[in-house]
Write a structure and sequence with these properties.
- The chain is mainly α.
- It folds into 3 domains: 98 residues, no CATH class; 69 residues; 76 residues, no CATH class.
- The protein contains 9 helices and no strands.
- The radius of gyration is 23 Å and the shape is globular.
- The N and C termini lie far apart (79 Å).
């Protein structure tokens, strides 16, 4: 009896934690824009300030249920209607269902979130006109297929027994993402040579097994190859050296 009660309490606690995680995922785009908007206070970047972001998304979240019977009228309204509210419904349902395979369930929810976000991101693109494909046809088609796959995986996580969540290795995805951001930020002011080498070295930090001498040699060779391939072999107008050296 005591074991049954302890297991029930553990299941309830796990479901609550999972529901909170999905709730945060549902509000992730709004939270990200809010955090990004604080940069405008210090003159970093453009866009709306924090108060405008809060007002815009708050109004859209409150008005989204009524938008089911009319046009949402704004990007924030579409985001709430297409992305946030479906995930909020999933978060509420998670609190009351018995998840038998947490790894499959959360993986399915992640696929659903990705598909819903892609549907919102492509909502302003032109769709089908008769038999002619528009710019938004393929993204929406693949998003709907991904959405169906995510729903199927989520249902499997509820109906079948499976593994619990495995330990998430954050180091690799973190440094790979940082390397991509580094390349995007430095390619124009610093040129191809610096941006490619710096991006490669940052990505190499994603594993503790990196041998730095070998990594540096490979990075230099790869940078030299890219510096010859893109500007000269392919004829792309890429800047090789930093701007302050060219002026």
């Amino acid at each position: 009896m005591a074991d049954t009660m302890a297991h029930s309490a553990s299941t309830t606690r796990n479901n609550t934690n999972t529901a909170i995680g999905i709730l945060v995922l549902a509000l992730a785009p709004q939270i990200f824009e809010l955090l990004w908007s604080f940069g405008t206070i210090f003159g970093l970047g453009g866009g709306r300030g924090p108060l405008q972001v809060l007002l815009g998304h708050g109004t859209a979240l409150l008005a989204a249920p009524g938008a089911l019977f009319g046009a949402p009228g704004s990007s924030e309204g579409l985001l709430a209607l297409i992305y946030t509210y479906p995930l909020l419904a999933v978060a509420i349902a998670t609190r009351f269902v018995k998840v038998r395979s947490p790894q499959d369930y959360i993986g399915g929810v992640a696929l659903i979130a990705l598909a819903l976000f892609a549907l919102w991101a492509s909502s302003d693109l032109q769709g089908m006109r008769g038999f002619s494909f528009g710019a938004g046809t393929a993204p929406r088609m693949f998003s709907l297929l991904l959405l169906g796959l995510g729903v199927a995986v989520t249902v499997v996580g509820v109906l079948t027994d499976g593994p619990h969540l495995a330990t998430y290795a954050w180091r690799g995805p973190l440094f790979v993402s940082l390397s991509i951001l580094s390349f995007a930020v430095t390619i124009r002011p610093m040129g191809m040579i610096f941006a490619a080498l710096a991006s490669f070295m940052i990505a190499a930090c994603g594993t503790p097994e990196t041998r730095w001498l070998e990594t540096l040699i490979v990075g230099i060779c790869l940078t030299a190859f890219c510096s010859l391939l893109f500007p000269y072999a392919l004829g792309l107008p890429l800047q090789l050296w930093p701007s302050f050296l060219i002026r």
